[in-house]
Amino acid sequence: MNDAAFLAPMPLAVQPLTPQAFAPYGTVLAAPAGKKGRPINGGNAERFDLVGDLQLGAQGGRPMLALFRAQARRFPHEVTEMERHALGSQTFVPLGERRFVIVVAPAGEAPAPAALAAFVTDGLQGVTLAPGTWHHALLAVDAGDFVVVERAAASVDCDTCALAARVVVDWRD
Ligand SMILES: NC(=O)N[C@@H](O)C(=O)O
Ligand code: NI
Fold this sequence. Notes:
The protein is mainly β. It has one domain: Sandwich (Jelly Rolls). It has helices at 3-7, 19-22, and strands at 10-16, 26-29, 38-40, 45-47, 62-70, 77-84, 90-94, 100-105, 117-120, 126-129, 134-135, 139-140, 144-152, 159-170. The strands form 3 sheets. Strands 1, 6, 8, 9, 11, 12 and 14 form a 7-stranded mixed β-sheet that branches. Strands 2-10-7-13-5 form a 5-stranded antiparallel β-sheet, with no helix packed on it. A two-stranded antiparallel sheet has the order 3-4. A hairpin with a 4-residue loop joins strand 3 and strand 4 (45-47). The longest helix is centred in the first third of the chain and has 5 residues, at 3-7. The radius of gyration is 17 Å and the shape is globular. GO terms for molecular function: ureidoglycolate hydrolase activity; ureidoglycolate lyase activity. Keywords: Lyase, Purine metabolism.
């Protein structure tokens, strides 16, 4: 491999977030397109049950709801580290209309660069990452607040891994 090829990062294309494309990694949090919710509160609201088991209690864990006040990231963004929470899911919901990019890889062995996938939300969508899904820490496109629901326990559940080659999230606002 010549030097140029060695140094050139692999561009990671960013696709619009859809439930189908994100299914191997978790759940997209949004009202199902074209579907009515269950009427509640005397018909003054519709209910959509999105995730029935957030998996936050394994090995003495408990649910934690946090608020992340995120700065806007600059793109293209080089991915240097991925992480996973093996014992619980992690949910990100924007407070207000606020986009973010989510870089993921399937649970299991530390991911090869080619196994990464990247999605950008529409500003209203949230995600629940399945336990063990490899992901990059929150990449806010629009600065501001996100509600995060995750498993909390006496010991931190966060494995990290470096990538075997350079990868750049190839996206511009
Ligand atoms: N560090 C932290 O609490 N957040 C990460 O787990 C993340 O995925 O953003
Ligand atoms: Ni995380």
